[in-house]
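request received
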Amino acid sequence: MPILRLTLAYDGSDFVGWQRQATGVSVQGLVESALTRLTGAAAVVTGAGRTDAGVHALGQVASARVSTDRSPAELHRALNALLPDAVRVVALEEAAPDFHARYGAKAKRYVYRLATGDVCSPFERRYAWHVTHPLETAAMSEALAPLLGRHDFAAFQATGSRVRDTTRTLYEARLEEPIPGASWPRGPGPGVASELTFVLRGDGFLRHMVRNIVGTLVEIGRGRWPPGQMAAVLASRERRLAGPTAPPQGLFLVEVEY
Amino acid sequence: MPILRLTLAYDGSDFVGWQRQATGVSVQGLVESALTRLTGAAAVVTGAGRTDAGVHALGQVASARVSTDRSPAELHRALNALLPDAVRVVALEEAAPDFHARYGAKAKRYVYRLATGDVCSPFERRYAWHVTHPLETAAMSEALAPLLGRHDFAAFQATGSRVRDTTRTLYEARLEEPIPGASWPRGPGPGVASELTFVLRGDGFLRHMVRNIVGTLVEIGRGRWPPGQMAAVLASRERRLAGPTAPPQGLFLVEVEY
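response:
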């Protein structure tokens, strides 16, 4: 049976996350149900990353072993016809027989979006964390630098996680300010929030790692902690020293590299 | 009693439109309820334009006569605290005693967004019209030109409207292609839609006028009609000769000028 490689975009607002759960609608569950209906055999779909409830994806990658007479192009169209419009298959192709979306992933790129200003645009409310405190972008950029490279990221792991090896490598960790004139329809109006985007790319991410890093960055941007606190938290490997977990709606899984 | 001038942004997806209706949630109704609760007296809020169900606003303007001890800044904060996050007051100020949001409006600017490509981004589904047919942008730009200036726009008025004078003046009518690299988070993924934006600015708009012009433009962009058809439809003053009404979710009231 051929292995399919699916690239998926989804608006995570109304889902319990990527992973199938006992209750609630998951993206994995939706894709499995649609594939099962199309092929007549129970499909198992494996995602590269398990995005949490409310987290979005532009380029989640999934693999599935299916038996079907349909061409990849037909299957692509048929899947999108069955899925809700909050979940889209943006690409579907036959992969090498040993392709595995999770174990084969070499790097992932996440972005986390902040909306700033007094008033949050209605068009950002589901796609950014609205922070009303003024934020020092230079301090946040400075704090990101020591995260680059290979480190034990235990301090940024979700409480209660039981991962044996908490060492990961970050290839990119930077802050992007908005491109002037390009924020529409995210608010040319007076007082409407502008946006800041954190880009994090690495060989793997612990549960809540991006959101805990962003929560720490915002403490630094607000001036409650000095920029050097990030390196101190990292070195401590103590979750209780990091900032709060940033809310899910600002986080996007943008790309998975193989 | 002072006159307030409110600038409002809203995501129209879940509302019956700007105007209060017998059933359903309207933006006007929400703002009136919030003002009534804050001032203790029944508030009447007048909007510059009556956006239809599903139509969005970045800069709707409304006027209201209220009696309150609160400062404009306090009222602004209190209103946003009471309103759902799909409706935001982006500015609130005391206006001149003769200010009237509807009768005082000198010009309005609307934009209409199209998502193109085979697959519509989940992040566009509520904020653009997804058109899968290839579109000739040069033909659509050519078709827009004869709309500029003072004309009888009866051909683009909603069926059943009874407006005595259907003459309006358009100051701007143009097509904007996406700014390269600026489409995020609207889809860097392969196959995800890019966008086209129509900008229309004029001294007034008939009901469905922008959506009927866009419906006609898409017929021209698809190659079903030549670009010259737009001028012919305009001259005919016959609604039945124009294209279909484009769906509401691509339309944004961006700005009202006084």
